[in-house]
Amino acid sequence: MTSSALSDLKALLLDADIRREDAELESLLRGAAAAPDDARDRWTELLAPSADPGLRDRLINAGRRFMDGLGDSFTDGPAPASRLEALREEMRRQGLDGLVIPRTDEYQGEYIPQKSERVLWLTGFSGSAGTVVVGLDKAAIFVDGRYTLQVRDQVNIDLFEPRHLIEQPATDWIAETFKTGDRIGFDPWLHTQHGAGHLNIAAQKAGAVLIRVENNPVDAVWADRPAAPVAPVVPQEMRFAGESAEDKRARLGKALTDKGIDAAAITATDSIAWLLNMRGADVPNCPLPLSFALLNADATVDWFIDDRKLTPDARAALGNGIVVRPESEFADALADLGRQGKVVQADPATAPCLVFDRLSQYGAKTVEAADPCLLPKACKNDVEIEGTRTAHKRDGAALSRFLHWLSVEAPKGGQTELSVIDRLAKFRAEGEHFRGFSFDTIAGAGPNGAVIHYRAVERTNRKVETGQLLLVDSGGQYLDGTTDVTRTMAVGTPAREMMERFTLVLKGHIAIATARFPVGVTGSQLDTLARLPLWQAGLDFDHGTGHGVGSYLNVHEGPQRIAKAFNAVALKPGMILSNEPGYYKAGEYGIRIENLVVVRAVESAPDGAERDLLEFETITLAPIDRTLIVVDMLTGPEREWLNAYHVRVRDAILPQLDGEASDWLRQATEPV
């Protein structure tokens, strides 16, 4: 560990008036990177005098960053080639010619515990989405447009051929690479029913056979694989949830009864957390307990979870309708439903295919249908919406303090991406009900801003320099809501091209923010609005325009989204989504403007309207950099929206600021 890393850590601790020896700090940082959930308890003890959960999260994140060069399992560069060699030897031992390794776990979540980071361990790739396919002679890694630059930086491309997940999918590579008689392995816990079906078609095209493996070959050769997390589970209070778990269970149980379904297998951890009004900390950034559940038609729930996680408050809140069972019994419980001839609903898009295998093998009648919690969870109740609005007011104040600080300090020089991340974390952690970050903050200076999901580490850490753009994408987890906001700032005087393209992105952002649309319209039908200004200039961006956001849950939530890809889910009142068009010039700069919006009914429909209309309410409150706007490129209505938005920001945030920060906000929200 570098002396500068220890110095930075000491500075964080001194803010809380805590002093510790270097040896203890180094030990804690090693633990934070290797087993963050265990480390959280150690940090809790260390920081007991401060009782500051925000500082704890900052220290754990610092521990992950400060691991460069320490030789642990997880690094920020390519993994050793010996791991691939060991895996191939294990594949030969199991009689496999190929192996599909998705970046997921048995719960199919975006954020996974360290023990499930198989792709990271094998390749060095740390992105949130990707798949590796390993053959005995060659291998490939498949990532989407967010990670096309990152994958080449983190992975040894002599060992793993980088391919675009959409344009060059793994199924095509499988069909092209393998031959008749080859045996391609996959772990049925790590693939959904739909996903396994696509793999099977690809294998058949090659004349190969898809083989379910009971002992995952990666796990067999991962000698120092971390243990499963055992983070505490706590109830989500009614003042934040807005509906009791009992009422949710009754509502969804009745829906199952009406359809003649005996039980629903629920494997999405955010669905279970929402249904039972429970929160945990088993994975980074999302307040989730890892578990499975069976929702029965009589509104009871069998909850399969390591009961060491349950705090006394959680046990007391469960009530009589929830039976806690060991997680290891979930597969056997599915078999029992089959033996009883039950009708069981499971989601082929989110549940591991093992669920369907087990139900079918033992005689259950399986109904393939969406997770029954998806839409109810997505359509926030009034309490959740108001809580999210309130959380955004506090979050906006933290962002405004940060943006003011940046406007003063960045021109002086000496700031880096990591110092920017730590400063923003400090401002955000001061907010009421703050419980951590909704994802690892993205701070990309200059060319790093063009890496869509860039993650700064000491090796890649760039200085924030005059003449650059700085893109900062960040969010907080609060008891009353989840935030996600991106701002792009000019450091010094921006180039004309930067301003023009920023303005094109802003025009697309405003088009979504001001859209009115009939009931029944989907996000994919609106996506073009965000891209049209860029398209007309021959430009585009390679990610979705908007994703769903939870209420003190996942920052990426379905089933709603705004994207090019077809989505059959109509937008409904209460859904929260991001509005985040962007533009990225490889090797030079990146631009993204992101606010969260909530779908609501249009109260005053225009004369002659023949259909009920919906619209978006923007709930993020933070200034948009006016120095990057070419005002003449905006239409009159676009300028009106921007000025009105900045009035809202000023009215909501100014009472929370004082001194120079309040003066800065007044200037930053002046009309254009």
TrEMBL record:
One of its GO terms (biological process) is proteolysis. InterPro entries: Creatin/AminoP/Spt16_N, Creatinase/aminopeptidase-like, Creatinase_N, Pept_M24, Pept_M24B, Peptidase_M24_C, Peptidase_M24B_aminopep-P_CS, X-Pro_aminopeptidase_P. The keyword Aminoacyl-tRNA synthetase does not apply. It comes from the Bacteria. PROSITE patterns: PROLINE_PEPTIDASE. Pfam families: Creatinase_N (PF01321), Creatinase_N_2 (PF16189), Peptidase_M24 (PF00557), Peptidase_M24_C (PF16188). Coiled coil: none annotated. Residues 83-194 form the Creatinase N-terminal domain. This is Aminopeptidase P family protein. The lineage of its organism: Bacteria, Pseudomonadati, Pseudomonadota, Alphaproteobacteria, Rhodospirillales.
